[in-house]
Amino acid sequence: MNDGELDPLIHVPTRLKIVATLAALPDGDTLSFTRLQDMIGLTPGNLIIHLRKLEEADYISSDKTRNGTVSITTVALTGHGRKALDAYTQALRDLLGGL
Amino acid sequence: MTPSPDTTTPAGNGGHFDPRQAAALLDQTTQQARRKLAPSPPWLLAARAVAVLAALGAIWLTVRGQHPYKGPTGADIPILIAFIILNFAATVGVREHAMTGVRGKTRFRPAEIAILAVSWAVVPVLMWALATAGASFAWYPTTVLIVPGLAWAAVNGAREGWRGSAMGLVIAATGVAGAFAGPAGSWAVAGLGLCIVLLGKAAAVARRQRRETA
After folding, report:
1. What pLDDT does B154 receive?
2. What radius of gyration, in Å, describes the C-alpha atoms of chain B?
3. Among B2, B25, B59, B130, which residue is least crowded by beta carbons within 10 Å?
4. Rounded to an integer, what distance in angstroms lies between the CA atom of residue B211 and that of residue B214?
5. Residue A2 domain flag
6. How confident is the model at residue A4 (pLDDT cuts 50, 70, 90)?
7. Domain assignment present for A32
8. What is the ipTM of this complex?
9. What pLDDT, on a 0 to 100 scale, did the predictor assign at position B17?
10. Over 80: is that where the pLDDT of A56 sits?
11. Distance between CA atoms of B75 and B78, rounded to whole angstroms?
Protein backbone atom coordinates (compact mmCIF):
# COMPACT_ATOMS: atom_id res chain seq x y z
CA MET A 1 0.00 0.00 0.00
CA ASN A 2 1.51 3.36 -1.05
CA ASP A 3 0.54 6.19 1.23
CA GLY A 4 3.02 8.66 -0.30
CA GLU A 5 0.22 10.60 -1.96
CA LEU A 6 -1.47 11.37 1.38
CA ASP A 7 -0.95 14.94 2.58
CA PRO A 8 1.86 14.54 5.15
CA LEU A 9 0.59 17.53 7.09
CA ILE A 10 -2.74 15.83 7.77
CA HIS A 11 -1.52 12.23 7.79
CA VAL A 12 -0.53 12.39 11.47
CA PRO A 13 -3.02 11.04 14.05
CA THR A 14 -3.17 14.19 16.16
CA ARG A 15 -3.41 16.62 13.26
CA LEU A 16 -5.98 14.42 11.55
CA LYS A 17 -8.11 14.61 14.71
CA ILE A 18 -7.70 18.40 14.88
CA VAL A 19 -8.65 18.94 11.24
CA ALA A 20 -11.57 16.47 11.37
CA THR A 21 -12.91 18.11 14.54
CA LEU A 22 -12.72 21.63 13.08
CA ALA A 23 -14.34 20.37 9.85
CA ALA A 24 -17.40 19.35 11.88
CA LEU A 25 -18.13 23.05 12.47
CA PRO A 26 -20.27 24.88 9.92
CA ASP A 27 -18.45 27.41 7.69
CA GLY A 28 -17.86 30.65 9.55
CA ASP A 29 -17.85 29.13 13.03
CA THR A 30 -14.78 29.02 15.26
CA LEU A 31 -13.86 26.85 18.23
CA SER A 32 -12.07 27.98 21.37
CA PHE A 33 -8.65 26.53 22.09
CA THR A 34 -9.83 25.07 25.40
CA ARG A 35 -12.88 23.32 23.88
CA LEU A 36 -10.70 21.91 21.09
CA GLN A 37 -8.19 20.73 23.66
CA ASP A 38 -11.00 19.10 25.64
CA MET A 39 -12.39 17.35 22.56
CA ILE A 40 -9.02 16.11 21.28
CA GLY A 41 -7.56 15.27 24.70
CA LEU A 42 -4.14 16.87 24.31
CA THR A 43 -1.93 18.94 26.56
CA PRO A 44 -1.92 22.67 25.71
CA GLY A 45 1.73 22.58 24.63
CA ASN A 46 1.23 19.62 22.34
CA LEU A 47 -1.89 21.16 20.79
CA ILE A 48 -0.10 24.48 20.17
CA ILE A 49 2.69 22.69 18.29
CA HIS A 50 0.26 21.01 15.93
CA LEU A 51 -1.88 24.12 15.48
CA ARG A 52 1.19 26.16 14.52
CA LYS A 53 2.11 23.60 11.92
CA LEU A 54 -1.39 23.70 10.43
CA GLU A 55 -1.53 27.49 10.55
CA GLU A 56 1.79 27.82 8.75
CA ALA A 57 0.24 25.84 5.89
CA ASP A 58 -2.88 28.05 6.00
CA TYR A 59 -5.03 25.03 6.89
CA ILE A 60 -6.39 26.77 9.98
CA SER A 61 -6.71 30.35 11.17
CA SER A 62 -6.53 31.54 14.74
CA ASP A 63 -7.71 34.66 16.48
CA LYS A 64 -6.91 35.93 19.93
CA THR A 65 -9.33 38.29 21.70
CA ARG A 66 -9.19 39.82 25.16
CA ASN A 67 -12.18 39.80 27.47
CA GLY A 68 -11.04 41.85 30.46
CA THR A 69 -8.04 40.04 31.87
CA VAL A 70 -8.82 36.81 30.07
CA SER A 71 -7.56 36.16 26.54
CA ILE A 72 -9.49 33.73 24.38
CA THR A 73 -7.94 31.98 21.40
CA THR A 74 -10.28 30.61 18.76
CA VAL A 75 -9.36 28.46 15.78
CA ALA A 76 -11.16 27.56 12.56
CA LEU A 77 -10.52 25.52 9.46
CA THR A 78 -9.82 27.74 6.41
CA GLY A 79 -11.25 27.09 2.97
CA HIS A 80 -7.81 25.87 1.97
CA GLY A 81 -7.77 23.49 4.94
CA ARG A 82 -11.23 22.15 4.12
CA LYS A 83 -10.14 21.47 0.52
CA ALA A 84 -6.99 19.74 1.80
CA LEU A 85 -9.08 17.49 4.07
CA ASP A 86 -11.44 16.69 1.17
CA ALA A 87 -8.45 15.79 -1.02
CA TYR A 88 -6.95 13.71 1.81
CA THR A 89 -10.26 11.87 2.31
CA GLN A 90 -10.50 11.18 -1.43
CA ALA A 91 -6.89 9.94 -1.51
CA LEU A 92 -7.65 7.61 1.40
CA ARG A 93 -10.72 6.27 -0.44
CA ASP A 94 -8.68 5.69 -3.59
CA LEU A 95 -5.97 3.90 -1.63
CA LEU A 96 -8.32 1.69 0.34
CA GLY A 97 -10.61 1.04 -2.61
CA GLY A 98 -7.66 -0.34 -4.50
CA LEU A 99 -6.98 -3.08 -1.98
CA MET B 1 0.60 32.42 16.12
CA THR B 2 4.16 32.84 14.90
CA PRO B 3 5.95 30.53 12.44
CA SER B 4 7.78 27.70 14.11
CA PRO B 5 10.00 24.82 13.12
CA ASP B 6 8.47 21.39 12.68
CA THR B 7 8.70 19.91 16.16
CA THR B 8 5.85 17.49 15.69
CA THR B 9 7.84 14.29 15.36
CA PRO B 10 7.95 13.50 19.07
CA ALA B 11 4.38 14.68 19.39
CA GLY B 12 2.89 11.98 17.28
CA ASN B 13 4.69 11.69 13.94
CA GLY B 14 6.82 8.75 14.83
CA GLY B 15 6.02 5.37 13.37
CA HIS B 16 4.01 4.40 10.31
CA PHE B 17 0.40 5.56 10.19
CA ASP B 18 -1.51 2.99 8.21
CA PRO B 19 -4.16 4.43 5.83
CA ARG B 20 -6.73 1.99 7.22
CA GLN B 21 -6.06 3.32 10.72
CA ALA B 22 -6.26 6.86 9.32
CA ALA B 23 -9.65 6.15 7.71
CA ALA B 24 -10.98 4.66 10.94
CA LEU B 25 -9.66 7.58 13.00
CA LEU B 26 -11.09 10.13 10.56
CA ASP B 27 -14.50 8.46 10.65
CA GLN B 28 -14.52 8.10 14.44
CA THR B 29 -13.33 11.68 15.08
CA THR B 30 -15.82 13.18 12.62
CA GLN B 31 -18.73 11.30 14.17
CA GLN B 32 -17.69 12.21 17.72
CA ALA B 33 -17.21 15.87 16.82
CA ARG B 34 -20.57 16.10 15.05
CA ARG B 35 -22.27 14.46 18.02
CA LYS B 36 -20.61 16.76 20.56
CA LEU B 37 -21.17 19.94 18.56
CA ALA B 38 -24.78 19.25 17.53
CA PRO B 39 -27.03 21.93 19.14
CA SER B 40 -30.15 19.81 18.49
CA PRO B 41 -29.12 16.13 18.49
CA PRO B 42 -31.57 13.64 16.97
CA TRP B 43 -32.08 11.80 20.27
CA LEU B 44 -33.21 15.01 22.00
CA LEU B 45 -35.57 15.91 19.16
CA ALA B 46 -37.07 12.40 19.23
CA ALA B 47 -37.43 12.52 23.03
CA ARG B 48 -39.16 15.91 22.79
CA ALA B 49 -41.47 14.52 20.10
CA VAL B 50 -42.55 11.65 22.36
CA ALA B 51 -42.91 13.98 25.36
CA VAL B 52 -45.07 16.53 23.53
CA LEU B 53 -47.30 13.79 22.16
CA ALA B 54 -47.66 12.25 25.63
CA ALA B 55 -48.31 15.56 27.43
CA LEU B 56 -50.77 17.07 24.95
CA GLY B 57 -52.29 13.66 24.17
CA ALA B 58 -53.01 13.11 27.87
CA ILE B 59 -54.83 16.43 28.02
CA TRP B 60 -56.78 15.64 24.84
CA LEU B 61 -57.93 12.35 26.41
CA THR B 62 -59.37 14.22 29.39
CA VAL B 63 -61.06 17.04 27.45
CA ARG B 64 -62.43 15.15 24.44
CA GLY B 65 -65.50 13.93 26.37
CA GLN B 66 -66.40 17.37 27.75
CA HIS B 67 -69.79 18.67 26.62
CA PRO B 68 -69.66 21.61 26.89
CA TYR B 69 -65.91 22.11 26.72
CA LYS B 70 -64.45 23.29 30.05
CA GLY B 71 -60.72 22.97 29.32
CA PRO B 72 -57.95 21.02 31.05
CA THR B 73 -58.68 19.86 34.58
CA GLY B 74 -56.65 20.84 37.64
CA ALA B 75 -54.75 17.56 37.37
CA ASP B 76 -53.71 18.30 33.76
CA ILE B 77 -52.14 21.69 34.45
CA PRO B 78 -49.11 20.31 36.41
CA ILE B 79 -48.43 17.89 33.51
CA LEU B 80 -48.44 20.76 31.05
CA ILE B 81 -46.25 22.98 33.21
CA ALA B 82 -43.79 20.14 33.90
CA PHE B 83 -43.60 19.41 30.18
CA ILE B 84 -42.92 23.05 29.28
CA ILE B 85 -40.21 23.43 31.96
CA LEU B 86 -38.51 20.12 31.14
CA ASN B 87 -38.64 20.77 27.41
CA PHE B 88 -37.17 24.26 27.77
CA ALA B 89 -34.46 23.16 30.24
CA ALA B 90 -33.39 20.17 28.16
CA THR B 91 -33.30 22.15 24.93
CA VAL B 92 -31.35 25.08 26.35
CA GLY B 93 -29.06 22.86 28.46
CA VAL B 94 -28.05 20.58 25.59
CA ARG B 95 -27.62 23.51 23.22
CA GLU B 96 -25.43 25.45 25.66
CA HIS B 97 -23.30 22.37 26.35
CA ALA B 98 -22.80 21.74 22.64
CA MET B 99 -22.07 25.40 21.89
CA THR B 100 -19.43 25.83 24.61
CA GLY B 101 -16.44 27.48 22.95
CA VAL B 102 -18.21 27.82 19.60
CA ARG B 103 -18.52 31.26 18.03
CA GLY B 104 -20.06 32.30 14.77
CA LYS B 105 -23.17 31.76 12.73
CA THR B 106 -24.50 28.76 14.68
CA ARG B 107 -24.98 30.86 17.82
CA PHE B 108 -28.05 33.05 17.96
CA ARG B 109 -27.28 36.78 18.07
CA PRO B 110 -28.83 38.87 20.88
CA ALA B 111 -31.25 40.48 18.40
CA GLU B 112 -32.45 37.05 17.25
CA ILE B 113 -32.92 35.88 20.85
CA ALA B 114 -34.88 39.09 21.53
CA ILE B 115 -37.17 38.48 18.54
CA LEU B 116 -37.88 34.90 19.70
CA ALA B 117 -38.52 36.03 23.30
CA VAL B 118 -40.86 38.81 22.16
CA SER B 119 -42.71 36.34 19.91
CA TRP B 120 -43.62 34.31 23.02
CA ALA B 121 -44.40 37.41 25.07
CA VAL B 122 -46.97 38.67 22.54
CA VAL B 123 -48.87 35.35 22.55
CA PRO B 124 -51.15 36.23 25.53
CA VAL B 125 -51.80 39.64 23.98
CA LEU B 126 -52.75 38.06 20.66
CA MET B 127 -55.02 35.52 22.35
CA TRP B 128 -56.70 38.21 24.41
CA ALA B 129 -57.19 40.36 21.29
CA LEU B 130 -58.71 37.40 19.40
CA ALA B 131 -61.02 36.65 22.32
CA THR B 132 -62.11 40.30 22.46
CA ALA B 133 -62.81 40.19 18.72
CA GLY B 134 -65.01 37.15 19.27
CA ALA B 135 -62.76 34.48 17.70
CA SER B 136 -63.88 31.09 18.98
CA PHE B 137 -60.36 29.65 18.71
CA ALA B 138 -58.73 32.42 20.77
CA TRP B 139 -57.86 30.14 23.70
CA TYR B 140 -57.11 26.99 21.72
CA PRO B 141 -53.61 25.59 22.50
CA THR B 142 -52.68 25.71 18.82
CA THR B 143 -53.16 29.49 18.74
CA VAL B 144 -50.09 29.67 20.99
CA LEU B 145 -47.98 28.26 18.15
CA ILE B 146 -48.71 30.79 15.40
CA VAL B 147 -46.55 33.79 16.33
CA PRO B 148 -43.50 31.88 17.69
CA GLY B 149 -43.67 29.61 14.62
CA LEU B 150 -43.61 32.60 12.28
CA ALA B 151 -40.82 34.24 14.31
CA TRP B 152 -38.73 31.04 14.14
CA ALA B 153 -39.31 30.91 10.38
CA ALA B 154 -38.28 34.58 9.99
CA VAL B 155 -35.13 34.30 12.12
CA ASN B 156 -34.00 31.16 10.30
CA GLY B 157 -34.92 32.62 6.91
CA ALA B 158 -32.80 35.71 7.63
CA ARG B 159 -29.78 33.47 8.32
CA GLU B 160 -30.59 31.30 5.27
CA GLY B 161 -31.45 28.32 7.43
CA TRP B 162 -34.16 27.08 5.11
CA ARG B 163 -34.85 23.85 7.01
CA GLY B 164 -35.42 25.80 10.24
CA SER B 165 -37.54 28.30 8.36
CA ALA B 166 -39.71 25.52 6.91
CA MET B 167 -40.04 24.02 10.40
CA GLY B 168 -41.30 27.38 11.74
CA LEU B 169 -43.85 27.65 8.94
CA VAL B 170 -45.13 24.11 9.61
CA ILE B 171 -45.50 24.96 13.32
CA ALA B 172 -47.46 28.11 12.42
CA ALA B 173 -49.59 26.06 9.98
CA THR B 174 -50.30 23.59 12.81
CA GLY B 175 -51.52 26.54 14.84
CA VAL B 176 -53.86 27.65 12.04
CA ALA B 177 -55.09 24.06 11.45
CA GLY B 178 -56.01 23.81 15.12
CA ALA B 179 -58.49 26.67 14.68
CA PHE B 180 -60.64 24.30 12.61
CA ALA B 181 -60.40 21.33 14.99
CA GLY B 182 -62.57 22.59 17.83
CA PRO B 183 -61.43 23.23 21.42
CA ALA B 184 -60.80 19.58 22.34
CA GLY B 185 -59.48 18.56 18.92
CA SER B 186 -56.96 21.40 18.91
CA TRP B 187 -55.06 19.61 21.73
CA ALA B 188 -54.71 16.55 19.49
CA VAL B 189 -53.70 18.72 16.51
CA ALA B 190 -51.05 20.49 18.62
CA GLY B 191 -49.64 17.22 20.00
CA LEU B 192 -49.60 15.41 16.66
CA GLY B 193 -48.36 18.43 14.68
CA LEU B 194 -45.45 19.17 17.01
CA CYS B 195 -44.58 15.46 17.29
CA ILE B 196 -44.40 15.11 13.50
CA VAL B 197 -42.33 18.30 13.14
CA LEU B 198 -39.83 17.17 15.80
CA LEU B 199 -39.57 13.62 14.44
CA GLY B 200 -39.09 15.01 10.94
CA LYS B 201 -36.27 17.24 12.13
CA ALA B 202 -34.68 14.37 14.08
CA ALA B 203 -34.72 12.21 10.95
CA ALA B 204 -33.31 15.04 8.81
CA VAL B 205 -30.46 15.75 11.25
CA ALA B 206 -29.62 12.05 11.58
CA ARG B 207 -29.66 11.60 7.80
CA ARG B 208 -27.42 14.67 7.28
CA GLN B 209 -24.94 13.47 9.91
CA ARG B 210 -24.76 10.02 8.28
CA ARG B 211 -24.33 11.51 4.79
CA GLU B 212 -21.58 13.86 5.89
CA THR B 213 -19.58 11.10 7.55
CA ALA B 214 -20.06 8.59 4.70
Report:
1. 96
2. 23
3. B2
4. 5
5. no
6. low
7. yes
8. 0.91
9. 85
10. yes
11. 6
A90 has a pLDDT exceeding 80: yes
B30 and chain A: CB distance < 8 Å anywhere? Answer: yes
Closest CA to A33 of A8, A13, A10, A60: A60
Q: What is the spatial distance between Cα B74 and Cα B94, in angstroms, rounded to a whole number?
A: 31
Is A7 a domain residue?
Answer: no
Give me the pLDDT at residue A25, please.
93
User: Among A57-61, B13-17, B184-188, which stretch is predicted with the lowest mean pLDDT?
Assistant: B13-17
Q: Residue B2 pLDDT > 60, yes or no?
A: no
Q: Is B4 on the interface with A (CB under 8 A)?
A: yes
Number of domains in chain A: 1
B23 and chain A in contact, CB less than 8 A: yes
pTM more than 0.90: no
Helix (H) or strand (E) holding A32: strand A30-32
CATH value at residue A44: 1.10.10.10
| Cross-strand bridge partners of residue A66 | A71
Distance in angstroms (rounded) separating the CA atoms of residues A46 and B198: 42
Residue A1 is assigned to a structural domain of this protein: no
Give the CA distances from residue B41 to residues B82, B116, B148, B198, B211, in Å, rounded to whole numbers and listed in that order: 22, 21, 21, 11, 15
CA-CA distance, B51 to B35, in Å (whole number)?
22
Per the structure, the complete domain to which residue A49 belongs is given by 13-97
- List the single best residue of A19, A27, A30, A31 to mutate versus B (max B Cβ within 10 A): A31
